[in-house]
Hints:
The structure holds 2 protein chains of 2 kinds.
Chain A: H1 2-34, H2 38-67, E1 70-72, H3 79-92, E2 99-103, E3 110-113, E4 121-125, H4 126-131, H5 134-149, H6 152-182, H7 186-194, H8 198-241, H9 244-256, H10 294-302, H11 310-321, H12 330-335, H13 355-372, E5 376-379, E6 385-388, E7 396-398, E8 405-407
Chain B: H1 2-60, H2 65-80, H3 86-107, H4 111-115, H5 117-152, H6 156-162, H7 176-179
Amino acid sequence: MWEQIRSNQVRSxxxxxFIAGLLLAVGYFLGLYFFDSAIGGLVxxxxxxxxxSLIAFFxxxxxxxxxxxxxxxxxxxxxxxxxxxxxxxxxxxxxxxxDVYIIDDPAxxxxxxxxxxxxxxxxxxxxxxxxxxxxxxQGVIAHEIAHIKNRDVLLMAITTVMLGTIVILSWxxxxxxxxxxxxxxxxxxxxxxxxxxxxxxxxxxxxxVLMILAPIIAQLIYYAISRKREYLADASSxxxxxxxxxxxxxxxxxxxxxxxLRAANQATAPMxxxxxxxxxxxxxxxxxxxxxxxxxxVRILRSMAGGASFVDYENAYRKARSTNQxxxxxxxxxxxxxxxxxxxxxxxxxxxxxxxxxAARSHEVSDMLLRLNKxxxxxxxxxxxxxxxxxxxxxxxxxxxxxxxxxx
Amino acid sequence: MIALWIILGILVILxxxxxxxxxxxxxxxxxxxxxxxxxxxxxxxxxxxIPNLVETVKGYAKHERETFELVTKARNLAQQGSSAGxxxxxxxxxxxxxxxxxxxxxxxxxxxxxxxxxxxxxxxxLTSTENKISFSRQYYNDSVLKFNxxxxxxxxxxxxxxxxxxxxxxxxxxxxxxxxxxxxKFT
Lengths: 408, 187
């Protein structure tokens, strides 16, 4: 595991350094334009970046969970989910149990957050909890735990902040250039009076091109990092669960769903198991997507014939895409020996899942959501269960099934 | 003079190498120990769950005394042997696992039992504990593999020999029945 993280870190550091270079270049030209001093621009870029980094580092996960309207749950709220998270914590060798959150949303998705593996959270939509059986849920949770274990969350936070800084800087810079140029702002005309001639014009053009291109390039790098991380998390999920079919089947269910997540946006998209914004089947979006297409991820997982190791994933990847490209680094592949696949869970072995199990799960999830919203559960002697909203004032209710009065 | 410096340099590099290799070996050994402790926690949890489960099932399935006795016996044996080595323990735990899946199979025949909330909660706990046992075993064996590789491969094997690091013992469950998931039919 360590070998894999280290070798991925080297590659990621190079990509991050490149984005950092872009950020500095944008700052440099910004300074040149508006303050006649490159240093001034660099300082502004760095200060903006530092502020955003600090916020992301200390408040990032609570902002993210707050934006997704996620609610923290206790083990007794959803025993099955909590147990599965704990199972995957053990399988991955994570030291501390991550916090578990529920998002009350029929869309099917999940994400992980937390700046270091010992202070992480896993969030999952109620829709997903309801739709997936035990093995499928295990596959999805393993994918999220893999993001935590591989430190993807930290990496994506760093990258997101840099990308955000570049976007903000060049957005304002290009607005000022266009509108400020029309009203001929004092600073710019004075610098023109200084008369650098040709060199000045070249810097102007290079800077302008950079301002336009920097956000796009940074975004493309960001997408590339994100996609690679998704493949690694899929491979890790197969390794942790020893059962690639679980995640494959879950992804299929998620892909077939047409529900879009309400509380997702461009910035939070890479945190999710599947891209919450894009529709499946858009080949054009390959370069500008945070996630590889679902159908491809399923195909790779399904063709991991007879093994759950990274080697099997790498071979399946090459076969599915018919390339000789590596998706996982050499050290990663070499780190683990031969790994077999386990049989499916006894309760769901073989045939289709019975309708009663689905109904039971559905009940379980809706009861849990009501409890989280401070509803009280009252059982009548006739066997009916009444859900009392928190703002209910009376001290008794009438059971409409048997006619009894129930004291609260 | 220069030769002296070169020898001194080589010596310093050598010392750093030994320290590094030793520390990484200790790191791996602690990882294995920690992984073993994880298995222990889950096995204990299983011992604690079993009496409860047996009691609940007893209330509905009175005629299955044989199965109850088998499970209880296997549990007590496993608990007594909990200080044994990985190989011996694997055998005992394997038998307990087999007895337990028989008990759950018996429970399938009693629809009223299967509708009991208490039983369902216990069943979820037990299923999860079984999973946790196998996942912690998986992680433990992965750790042992890495530790043993480190001990046997050059150049860290030299250091391991100097400080007499012992190879880790894999934790295998020896009963065949445990490896196969019990077949459950829905009728």
